[in-house]
Amino acid sequence: MGETTIEAIDLARQIVDIIADKKGENIVLLDVRERTTIADYFVICSGTSERQLKALVEGITETIKKDQGIYARFVEGNSATGWALIDYMDVIVHVFTPERRAFYDLEGFWYEAAVLLKMQ
Fold first, then answer.
1. Which of 13, 28, 77, 98 is the most exposed place for a label (fewest CB within 10 A)?
2. Distance of CA 116 to CAs 58, 68, 120, Å?
3. Which are the contacts of 48, defined by CB distance < 8 A and separation ≥ 6?
4. End-to-end CA distance of the chain
5. What is the spatial distance between Cα 16 and Cα 2, in angstroms, rounded to a whole number?
6. Helix (H) or strand (E) holding 36
């Protein structure tokens, strides 16, 4: 992980912008600081195909690396599984197919977290 001075909320907002540019759908930014110690923010989005999920994950990781010098701590899952997680420590990104997103229902699980942004 590279050295950076970017605030977690600014990183999360940049990730939201990358997702929107890549035509990700149903983007949600949750503030989970009061609910867990694993992260400060969750970014959740959907992609309509395996190809789009791959493009979203690659777009996020490559742009953040290029712009901020930050490498994801790890990436779990992949486009073939219909779900991927990108861990930036204070910001965790979940990229789903609509079916996987409905199955895991993270918004329902974290219903007490503050919704900072919701984009259809």
1. 98
2. 24, 22, 14
3. 25, 97, 98
4. 31
5. 21
6. none
Domain at 81, CATH number: 3.30.460.10
Determine whether 2 is exposed, middle or buried from the number of CB atoms within 10 Å of its CB (0-12, 13-18, 19+): exposed
Distance (Å, whole) CA 113 – CA 67: 28
1 inside domain? no
Cα–Cα dist 65/70, whole Å? 5
In a domain, 32, yes or no: yes
pLDDT for the residue 79: 86
Q: Tell me the residue range of the domain where 98 lies.
A: 8-119
Find, among 6, 18, 94, 8, the residue nearest to 62 by Cα. 18
- Read off the pLDDT of residues 56-101 as tens digits, 9 standing for 90 and up: 999 999 999 999 999 999 999 988 899 999 999 999 999 999 999 9
Phi, psi of 88 (to 5 degrees): -110, 30
Q: Cα separation of 80 and 50, whole Å?
A: 6
